[in-house]
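Exercise 7. Given the encoded structure of a 378-residue chain, write a plausible sequence.
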């Protein structure tokens, strides 16, 4: 009996200890909840209450800022076009993938976590800069695509009439990227995206196929020329961001593509002046995320072009360089494990994110030049 009482006492002690632990865990939570009790506010006074509210707001802003700073995920170009066509595979014709991709890029720009941030006047959007620069790179790529669709892809020749929807979409997407109100950037972009969606449906749905998309080698060449110029500029700026970090940056600046060399010669710029370009270290992450945003949009665009221009690419034996371009652009969207963009030194202990990005962009640009050469051959 004594043993039983001892065991019973031992169990009782254990239960009491468990209950004590539960009470200790619950006490901080209860204390946190009490911070927002109006009775406590009345006891502590006005300044204490304001302090609690300020700290709470700061924590919420920081958490939202972290969430909103995540780059949007990649999407499947084929599934996106099929969803926009309400699952009707027969409605997808030449040009449908490119048009649907343009619509999805625009929607992602406006509907990602936090929405469109470049024109925000309140925190957390006010103090964020990585995603706004990503947005600028993305809208630049979308503007280039919209311009190409309006000027070349939807017209059989230079004397042809412009498509009415693309005539609306192009200028709307070129509206000021940081206008807050009257009108807001979002409202103007939505009009442009709606026009692109209208073009998609006219191109591929409901039997009303009065829209045109000419998947010709010369049209693709025009677009690739513009893309090559953009990538060359981004690569040079990324190289300039690391210029002061050592010889590696100098090598990157010297490895200009033949296209960039030709453009520089035509503009009669002094080589020594170009090599002296430097980027303030506080702007390194801005250029990095602008390049990442442009490459994100370009990656999906090239995948769509690979589908819409498949016959042209096969005829010109250009599928291999096209896939190489896509592969290099995929690398630009790899996970960033560092909490900040690091501008390391040469072979030092820290990575150099701008030079890594510039390397991928340079190889993608080289592939685009090879692709252009193949398309221009008879």
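Solution.
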């Amino acid at each position: 009996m004594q043993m039983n009482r001892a065991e019973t006492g031992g169990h009782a002690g254990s239960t009491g200890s468990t209950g004590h632990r539960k009470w200790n865990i619950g006490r901080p939570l209860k204390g946190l909840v009490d911070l927002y009790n109006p009775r406590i506010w009345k006891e502590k006074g006005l300044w204490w209450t304001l302090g609690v509210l300020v700290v709470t707001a700061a924590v919420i802003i920081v958490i939202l800022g972290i969430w909103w700073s995540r780059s949007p995920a990649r999407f499947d170009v084929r599934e996106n076009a099929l969803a926009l066509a309400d699952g009707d595979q027969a409605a997808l014709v030449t040009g449908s993938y490119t048009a649907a991709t343009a619509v999805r890029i625009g929607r992602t720009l406006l509907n990602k976590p936090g929405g469109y941030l470049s024109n925000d006047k309140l925190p957390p959007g006010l103090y964020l800069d990585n995603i706004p620069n990503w947005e600028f790179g993305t809208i630049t790529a979308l503007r280039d695509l919209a311009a190409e669709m309006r000027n070349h892809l939807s017209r059989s020749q230079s004397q042809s009439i412009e498509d009415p929807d693309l005539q609306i979409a192009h200028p709307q997407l070129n509206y000021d990227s940081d206008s807050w109100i009257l009108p807001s950037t979002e409202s103007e972009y939505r009009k442009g995206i709606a026009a692109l969606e209208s073009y998609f449906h006219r191109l591929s749905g409901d039997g009303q196929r009065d829209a045109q998309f000419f998947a010709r080698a010369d049209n693709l060449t025009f677009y690739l020329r513009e893309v090559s110029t953009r990538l060359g500029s981004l690569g040079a700026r990324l190289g300039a961001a690391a210029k002061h970090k050592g010889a590696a940056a100098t090598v990157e600046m010297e490895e200009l593509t033949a296209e960039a060399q030709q453009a520089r010669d035509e503009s009669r710029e002094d080589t020594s002046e170009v090599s002296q370009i430097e980027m303030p270290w506080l702007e390194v992450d801005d250029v990095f995320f602008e390049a990442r945003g442009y490459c994100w949009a370009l990656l999906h665009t090239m995948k769509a072009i690979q589908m819409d221009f498949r016959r042209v690419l096969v005829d010109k034996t250009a599928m291999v360089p096209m896939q190489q371009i896509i592969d290099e652009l995929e690398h630009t969207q790899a996970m960033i494990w560092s909490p900040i963009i690091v501008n390391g030194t040469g072979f030092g202990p820290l990575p150099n994110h701008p030079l890594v990005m510039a390397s991928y962009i340079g190889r993608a640009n080289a592939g685009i030049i090879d692709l252009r050469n193949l398309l221009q051959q008879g």
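Remark. The longest helix spans residues 2-34. Students should compare their own answers with the one above.
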